[in-house]
């Protein structure tokens, strides 16, 4: 999932981003509403973690902007106020969820994952291709019953390819969905990750290269 954290308290924003990255998500950060709006207008995020009490352009304004843009992006608002009236007001702006500070990081992660599932087409409980199986919830990959250990990026690439249902996925799309804004678009990171992923998955090969277009798993299915 691609996540945007918009929070003016830099230590908190950085801590949230680090935690979500450890959970295998690609995370960008904006420390004010204007930067958040600019990033959201350029990149399609699955979820925006949005502080409501931003200086300048408020979280309320940014939320309205995201909602009226018609994107599938989901918004979870963070605020120091946890009153019922405040939650109702935040949700009435179009936010999909609301979490009062301080919060347990495990709860934030669970809510972000739940919203991410709503931001994209329904993901089946198991993604399969021939004897390969990927479980998005448990974050496990197995082939012919044997578990395969993958890095977060390798797992993310395979999840996107399997989720495409046999369609071709470009390197640019993989870079956007699995990495964050700090990834160099001219880097060979996708190619290198693909090479190590293929090696770990073993033979016969599962991932096809479509010259000039990208990659695909032709027999990807849903279990």
List keywords for this structure.
12 strands, 223 residues, 8 helices, single chain, alpha/beta, five-stranded parallel sheet
Lay out the secondary structure:
Elements: E1 2-6, H1 10-22, E2 26-30, H2 33-42, E3 47-51, H3 59-68, E4 74-79, H4 84-92, E5 97-100, H5 105-119, E6 127-129, E7 132-135, E8 140-143, E9 146-147, H6 152-163, H7 171-178, H8 189-201, E10 208-210, E11 214-216, E12 220-222
Parallel strand pairs: 1-2, 1-3, 3-4, 4-5
Antiparallel strand pairs: 6-7, 6-12, 7-8, 8-9, 10-11
Helix pairs in contact: 2-3, 6-8
What does this structure look like?
The chain is α/β, with parallel strands linked by helices and 223 residues long. It contains eight helices and twelve strands. β7 (132-135) and β8 (140-143) form a beta hairpin. α2 (33-42) packs parallel to α3 (59-68) and α6 crosses α8. The chain is elongated and about 55 Å long. The relative contact order is 0.12.
């Amino acid at each position: 999932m691609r996540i945007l954290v918009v929070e003016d308290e830099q230590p908190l924003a950085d801590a949230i981003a680090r935690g979500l990255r450890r959970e295998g998500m690609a995370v960008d950060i904006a420390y004010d509403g204007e930067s958040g709006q600019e990033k959201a207008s350029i990149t399609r995020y699955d979820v925006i973690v949005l502080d409501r009490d931003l200086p300048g352009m408020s979280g309320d304004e940014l939320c309205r902007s995201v909602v009226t843009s018609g994107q599938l992006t989901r918004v979870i608002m963070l605020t120091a106020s946890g009153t019922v009236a405040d939650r109702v007001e935040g949700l009435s702006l179009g936010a999909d969820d609301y979490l009062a500070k301080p919060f347990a990081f495990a709860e934030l992660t669970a809510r972000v994952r739940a919203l991410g599932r709503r931001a994209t087409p329904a993901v089946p409980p198991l993604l399969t291709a021939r004897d390969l199986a990927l479980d998005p919830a448990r974050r496990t990959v197995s082939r012919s019953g044997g578990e395969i250990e993958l890095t977060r990026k390798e797992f993310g690439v395979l999840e996107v390819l399997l989720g495409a249902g046999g369609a071709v996925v470009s390197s640019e799309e993989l870079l956007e969905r699995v990495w964050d804004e700090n990834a160099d678009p001219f880097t060979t990171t996708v190619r290198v990750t693909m090479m190590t992923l293929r090696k770990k998955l073993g033979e016969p090969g599962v991932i096809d290269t479509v010259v000039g277009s990208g990659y695909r798993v032709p027999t990807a299915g849903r279990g």
